[in-house]
Amino acid sequence: MWIPTxxxxxxxxxxxxxxxxxxxxxxxIGDTVQLLEKCEGWxxxxxxxxxxxxxxxxxxxxYLKNAHIKNKGQFETVIPMExxxxxxxxxxLRDWGAMWKRLYVVxxxxxxxxxxxxxxxxxxxxxxxxxxxxxxxxVGHLTNDRMRDVKHHITAxxxxxxxxxxxxxxxxxxxxxxDPDEISVTELFKLMEHRHRKKETPVPASTHHLFVxxxxxxxxxxxxxxxxxxxxxxxxxxxPLSERFFVRLNKNGVPKSPEKTERQCTLFVDLGSSDLxxxxxxxxxxxxxxxxxxxxxxxxxxxxxxxPFGCAVVSIADLLTADSKDDxxxxxxxxxTESEWHQIHESIIRKIxxxxxxxxxxxxxxxxxxLLHGDIEQLRREYMVLFTxxxxxxxxxxxxxxxxxxxxRNDLYITLEKGEFEKGGKSVARNVEITVYVLDIDGQVMKxxxxxxxxxxxxxxxxxxxxxxxxxxxxxxxxxxxxxxxMFRGSHVRFEFRHCSTKDKGEKKLFGYSFVPLxxxxxxxxxxxxxxxxxxxxxENANLQDSARYxxxxxxxxxxxxxxxxxxxxxxxxxxxxxxCSTKLTQNGDMLDLLKWRAHPERINDSLSKLKEIxxxxxxxxxxxTLDTLFGILDESSQRYGLKVFDCLVHIINLLQDSKFQHFxxxxxxxxxxxxxxxxxxxxxxxxxxxxxxxxxxAEHQDHxxxxxxxxxxxxxxxxxxxxxxxxxxxxxNEEEFRxxxxxxxxxxxxxxxxxxxxxxxVTQTQCxxxxxxxxxxxxxxxxxxxxxxxxxxxxxEVAGFVKETLGSLPAxxxxxxxxxxxxxxxxxxxxxxxxxxxxxxxxxxxPVVLRLLQAHMQEQRDLVMCAHILTSMxxxxxxxxxxxxxxxxxxxxxxIVESLLGLLLQTxxxxxxxxxxxxxxxxxxxxxxxxxxxxxxLALLRQMTDKHYQQLLQAFTSKDDLxxxxxQIFTVFRIxxxxxxxxxxxxxxxxxxxxVIITTVLYLSDALRKNFLNEKFDYKVWDSYFYLSVIFxxxxxxxxxxxxxxxxxxxxxxxxxMRVMMGCEIFSMWQNLGEHKLNFIPAMIGPFLEVTLVPQPxxxxxxxxxxxxxxxxxxxRSGNFKQVEAKLIDKLDSLMSEGKGDETYRELFNSILLKKxxxxxxxxxxxxxxxxxxxxxxxxLDYRDCMKLGEVDGKKIGCTVSLLNFYKTELNKEEMYIRxxxxxxxxxxxxxxxxxxxxxxxxxDELLEWSERPLREFLNYPMQSEWQRKEYLHLTIVQNFxxxxxxxxxxxxxxxxxDQYDSYYDYRNLSKMRMMEASLYDKIMDQQRLEPEFFRVGxxxxxxxxxxxxxxxxxxxxxxxxxxxxxxxxLNEFPHAIAMQHVNQPDQTIYQAExxxxxxxxxxxxxxxxxxxxxDGVPDNIKSFYKVNHIWRFRYDRPFxxxxxxxxxxxxxxxxxxxxxxxxxxxxxxxxxxxxxxRELVEVSPLENAIEVIENKNLQLRTLITxxxxxxxxxxxxxxxxxxxxxxxxxxxxxxxxxxxxxVKDYVMNHPEDGEKIGRLRELMFEQAHILEYGLAVHEKFVxxxxxxxxxxLVDQFHVMKSSLxxxxxxxxxxxxxxxxxxxxxNSCRNSVPNILSLDGARVVARxxxxxxxxxxxxxxxxxxxxxxxxxxxITGQSESSDEVFxxxxxxxxxxLSSNHSASPNVTSSAPSSARGSPQLQDKxxxxxxxxxxxxxxRPVSAIFPTPLDPAQKASPNQIGDTILPRSDPNLxxxxxxxxxxxSWSLDSVKEVNNTQFSDTVGKFLSPPVPPRPPYSGSSAKSxxxxxxxxxxxxxxxxxMPPFTPSPTECQSAGLVSNSPVLSGSxxxxxxxxxxxxxxxxxxxxxxxxxxxxxxxxxMPNSVSSGSDELIRRENKTPPPYSVYERTNxxxxxxxxxxxxIPPNADPPALPPKPHQIRTSSMKLDQASDSRRxxxxxxxxxxxxxxxxVSQL
Length: 1994
Fold this sequence. Notes:
A hairpin with a 6-residue loop joins strand 4 and strand 5. This protein is an alpha+beta fold. It is 42% helix and 13% strand. The protein has 65 helices and 40 strands.
């Protein structure tokens, strides 16, 4: 049976448990579990990190721990009873663990992010350190001090890690986390601020230390031992600042004792901040120990001397920038003259280079230097290793800036300065060496008390260095004598002088000595300064052991009696400088006189007077003795010396205020408590103090009185302690007398404080208006310190009374210049912080005084920083848990504070936050601090307020206006508190407390809002402020619990709950109360409420979403619709979702809740429509946001943006949003370098603008400008991008439009530039190569794709050089979870509905719309290549398959083709690289039709190659050779013979009677092919090189065999008669029977239309050649119909695959480069040559000028409309010699009959004119695709009539030239033309009259459809309109024909070819229509057309 656990509540998992049993709970080692129930060795409970999953687990797996239980029962909380640091450490390490693993992933994924990698390793080390420290704490064997250190280290590391990982700042007190509920908000703020400041701004250290590590001396000339001395030198004052650090080096230049680090490392301690400046240096002197001369031989002398070697200097300022220990190599300099050695360092510093030089070229001193900051104890903690391994301490000369009471020091420093010596009977100067000894009172040498410096132990003696031959040597050597204090008396120092001989023996001969005693007989030590000592002469054998003998002699010339002239006249002297640094000895006689006052009573007066002149350091040395002396004098002679003793006491007390001696205050406190014995002193002290206070007002000079007042704290301490001692001794006698004295003293003080500082005496009035203002200020500064002393004698209430009366006596106002106001506040601050105020009894007395002062200052906004401090201290005393029942006084205090300060607090916060921030950093910090403090005070006050307080507050408002102002004020302040910048970002604890207080207050105030401001008293402003506050409250980042870690989220929910839901419920409740006033907030509150609903909290969403239904309902009642609601929702959704708000769940919830709500509404239908629109927008916005999160620009991002852009335009009609997304898409394209797509995109915005002067506002990155200027800028940008995308044809159109605008404004400068730009684009078209992209069909199947892709198929335009495999890999990279489908069949529903991603990709072939350009003969391939792959709406994919039984002998019998045609919603290229497939058509092509198409394509290829060969476009003849060989030899698949076997046999004809016509057509094509081959061989023979003649002969022979196999002896009549057209089939020639009749004086004008404006219905025309002959089999044959693809034809449809239509056949090669995707370039003289066609020889002299009417038998049928072939002109001829252009046809027969040599020169050199495409064969089943041919697009969308046509821009002729444009076939009538700057003016051309042209005029389109029908069809198909560029041109002036280009009159017209054998009837109607249209003979002149107002069809 399961029993609830009582004590077993909390445990830790010891081993992992899988939980495989029923109801088992899986556990991991280290998890903490809460135990609920127990049963027979099993527990039931949950893991604390996942409390929702409960289960059972074995007891043996759990280690139980003691825990404290809160809220016993169902919702109990378990808190482990362990050290709070351990608890925090455990939870923090768990959080860090997860983040640490994420860091590892980041580090692995991004190797470049060094910071993350470093943090990963550093965090790992810190976590291990924390775990080690945790073990130490848990073991429990640490001492208290060690435990504190360990906890300090733990919390420091926890804080570091939290800061590095951007976690929250943890408020702590004594290492333990603080519960915000258990302390006041002000205390919490102070803790947070303290920790933040500690982290942000470390306090600059006032003490600094220099670490020096001597490493080595590098020099080539070593060989002697060295001594190195370091010291710090002040070059400004020319004195050393420190003692010396001494290192001995061996002969190799390294330290002698490397194992003893203290001998080579030192710390120069106690440097002040003033010592860290540029003119303070580290000076290094190096002394060598060896021979006298550096170059002497070794055997000369065995005696060693100390000799100068070198000096090095480095500025201490150079170390300030170094963060770590740096190694320095110091240059070592030697002295030029030895006598200058004492000042070599000064010469180096001053750079007097004449006195020194380098000691050696490679001599350098290697040292390590580091500057450390902080006191020495701090360094011992931080640099533990430094001190444990050993480091010597090098002290400062003199005391540091701060003297500590415990410092013990007694060091005497003596500097050997210089000497003056006689020659001593020698011819040269002496080599003098000094030996120094210290001797005690008995004359014994004191051992180890002579030190050369720190680093080496002291010795018994010291030897100076020797200067060679110098009788006036200057040493400047400093030695240290650390003699104990008790040995100072009677000690002396002896200096012995020896001459060092340089002879063989090297003797040192004593010749004199000096001495100096260390202490005088009166007890004073040797005074600091320079002393000139007498040199007493002696011999080498003189006995100096008996010091008593010479101590009687004089030692200094200064001390000689006046009559001792003999000694004074001695020339020899020795100078030393002494300096004593002692805490026990003094050199001051006055100090000694005072301390010995009893010995000389007569000197007391003088000694007391001189005390003020004694140095402070001397006084603090003897502080206790001095104080005893003073109080001793006071006790004995108070009447006589009372005033002077008081003044001396004041002087000493104020001395301790100095920062240098402030650490001696505890010494004085200890003296007062323990050593002071003046029991009677209080009477004299009170009397003298009162005497001074009474005279303040009348005193002329206040300085001395202010010194007295400044010392009042310690005077009161002495008074109180004296009284206590007296009471203790006497049993409390004279108590009343004492109280009376104190009361009288305070009366005097109150009187003095009450003076208004206006000056009462005549003197003061003239001198200063603020006589006692400064004195009052001085007293107030010290007064709070007196409270504690008074409490030792008086009760709390008595002291509170003193304080209240004293502070209450202050004047209400002060003088403007008086500092009293600020000091008042400081006094109040100290009062509030004092122990007196903490006591509730005194607090109720003092609070009104404090509040009154605060109120006055806050109203005037003065001294706000101090006001904030006072308020903080006051409110910190009011605990949250002080309930009204236990502490009624607390409630009264809160009442008082609320009444006095709440309004002022709100006003102050508003004014501070609205004020501009000050400039300086310090001021800014202070500004932020004061704001934070006031905020904390407000929060603390509000948190203390109960229902009763709120009721009293609200009732206190007398009028509604006052209440309204208060509510507006507090709501505004709350909005400020919620701002992110209010607190630092890691102060989450503070923010949560703030929010808790805000929501509690808002709940109280909302009642007041409902009661006072509803119905007729409704106030919009208050309600709006309330809603606005609620919304930003919910949306603030610190409440978004979803972004927090689970543990942090759990803690917040346990402590505060989800405050967002609470506030949301309150919003809903208040909204429901509004009633009809809701209309005031529609639509204003839609955006804010929508933002609230987007918060990912289900409960909040459920509460808030129904408000939208309410809004719709009220708006419907008011307006009859809810357009406003819809508009606002849509506008706001975009901005909010782009910020990352909202998700799929929200979309579904929004949809379901609102649909449910409107079920019963009358406006249900319109509501459903709105909800559906908003939901669809959300889908797209979510997809867009998800795509934008990805790194690189890819198709997904672009496609998503296009989807959203279209949605805004077509469904929402939001123009501004539409334009914004146009620019977002534009930026994406630019980033991806899709320049063409970028141009099309920007064109969308361009087309929304007009050429007007309407001013436009500043928008996006556009400045304020006119519409014309912006459109001009857009045009130029688009042209630039079209240029970069090599889409020059489109750029030309825009150039023309801009040029027209410049022309209309007569802006010829810009017009010229634009024409040049247009010309450059034409040049680029002809000169630069363009790659033709491949196209790929992509299907996205499955529910995992974004909405805009899901279960849709697209056609994508590939990148340059991108083939199928590369494209497929790119798509798989974009969709890494997608599965590539390996077949091309349409997927079934299971794939559509799968929860996965499937990609189906294969290549498709484009079906160009501009067949006229592509089929025109002679159009350069550079131009054609553009039209093949641009403006493509339809794409085709052919899949060959065998139907029925496959014949192994002949596979053509069963080879069918499944042809899929895809129609897009937009043409490619466009605003995206891919567009959705709008329509899919599927047809099957029979084997026979397939054969027809294959042969047609091969015939086309042959014609093209023959044409290129004739026109010399080919560099060599190889392509033609290979093509002829492939057809004639038929080595691959049997050639035409296979078709004969398959389709010409009797069985096939009998079984397929319906194919009779097709079989005839196939036979016709086969004969035609033979005819072409025969002509091709003839051409081949003329151009074939000599080495290929045998191959040509072989081809001719095989051709005869082939003819025989086809059964051709002679070609049928229709074949013989048909011309060989080199860009079309014989069917083209059938249409040539209707010639185009042109006059000389007028050219036919064809309407020009932009290639970018093809209508969506522009499909195959009924006469299109490419519809069957090329495009529909391009996947089978591997080629398109254009001339540059003819080399790529595959030999058989059976070899086709899913690959691109550009894959080349293995047996043919192209002479063009593979990258060019086009034919070889023409020479310049061939470019744009469209004037003439080749003349046809001999028969039928019918020309275009004199046409021969057709006889009825030869009239073409409607299906056989043909057009003429233009005559070719020789490009080598000059213009006047060129032949008149005529229309004729070529035939093989005619070629054979040419016998003149002119033909061989001219044949093939002319470019063919464009030939209209041929219609598909009428019997083909493929015609079901689309046969409707579109009409030309009119300029204006309103016009549907047929516009006139202008000549093609590729025809370089002016008006007046005979036009060589062909008769317009059904295909050509689409109006498509290429772009050229040579185009003919629209207004210049006229049609020929009826008289000139009797019956046969150019045929126009009989079945064409106008652009109006294009739009109609598009609307029916519901496809968006195309993104297009329209050509916009003004009518141009006619250009007359130049004389030089006139047509020669003697040119014979070429013969008309014979009529085709097969007559088609489809063209008859066309001819009749054409004839009737021109019957009136009136030429058709096109009307000038105005520019369109709107060019966009969107």
